[in-house]
Amino acid sequence: MTNIFYELERMKHLMNSLLDTPFFWEEAREMRLNYANIYENESGYMIQMLAPGIKKEGVEVHYENDLLTITLKPSEEQNDNVKWIRRERLKPIESRSYRLSAEVDPTRIEAKLIDGILLVFLPKREKKEPKKIEVKVK
Hints:
Elements: H1 4-19, H2 26-30, E1 36-41, E2 44-50, E3 59-64, E4 67-72, E5 94-99, E6 110-114, E7 117-123
Antiparallel strand pairs: 1-2, 2-7, 3-4, 4-5, 6-7
């Protein structure tokens, strides 16, 4: 007799691999990932991402070539007396990337983990007043 949980898990993996094919939109692939709220105020942008069960050591925020990547790695729960039937709450590794606008100052990006919510603040560059340069005509 077939285990119904095994069959459901197998179907889930097949559906996920289908979404990884290039024939589907990027948004369809991102539906499987952790949700994030992003808002803007006068000083910058804030990304709020759910991170239940994630410790500070399991958070990586990386910036390179105008791309901000947030990776969440849950700590491994070692319990040899347990046989997992289904584990959905903590995925092994979850990563999201965001293309940053030119007005973000990457040298001042900050991240905090508070009560299972990751907060990433992306400050805007300070606006410089245009300089008026007088050129003498000869």
